[in-house]
Amino acid sequence: MRRSHKSALAGLSLRTLGLLFGLALVLRLGHGLAMARALLRQSHHRRWHPRGSSHVDRVGRGHPEAVFWHPPGYPYFLGLLWSLVGKSFLWPRLLQALLGALSVVLTAWIGARTFGPRVGLAAGLGAAGYGTLIYFDGELLPPTWRFSFSCSRWRL
Hints:
The protein has 156 residues and is an all-alpha fold. The chain folds into 2 domains: 10-52 and 87-155, no CATH class; 53-86, no CATH class. It is built from 9 helices and no strands.
């Protein structure tokens, strides 16, 4: 038996979910741009950035244990992405902003499915504007991926 399109969205319209996604993405991209401007103004960052002192960089320089500082997969994701688009911190942050905005939609959907559409909308708005989630979506750290995969598990 097929579920109707309306019941599959747990009472939230596609327009509502799209607006939540857009709001979350704008907030995350705005934070990322503000952070990039602030970092480029700092002289110590200009010295640090070209050297790439991240753990992922040290793997290629004779420090294979450094890759295990992060949970499995994240350093390999960064390495693969940087091998495709070049060493830029912009692309991982853009992908994480998209993933963070998708997590907001999943949060709203889970809330609506579990407690009703009003709770789902409130949960989505709360996740869209939650400063800690916005901050970590702009950092090259795995919490964005962990949160998204946790939401995906609940969705199944």
